[in-house]
Specification:
Elements: H1 2-22, H2 35-43, H3 48-55, H4 59-67
Amino acid sequence: MAAFENDIRRERMMEGVRKAQAAGKYRGRPASIDPTKIKELRSTGMGAAAIAKQMGIGRASVYRALAA
């Protein structure tokens, strides 16, 4: 019985999510990193650590943006 109620609840929730997505209200968190800015700084010869420090992000985030 509890599993049946969970299935109904899940269906209702997914219906609400789909409705919100259709209305454009379910987009997720906005990106905080601008990959074009990182690539721009890298092309000037700046290192990953310096870019990370200037932009206030982690070094791994810089490498991830450069790989994308």
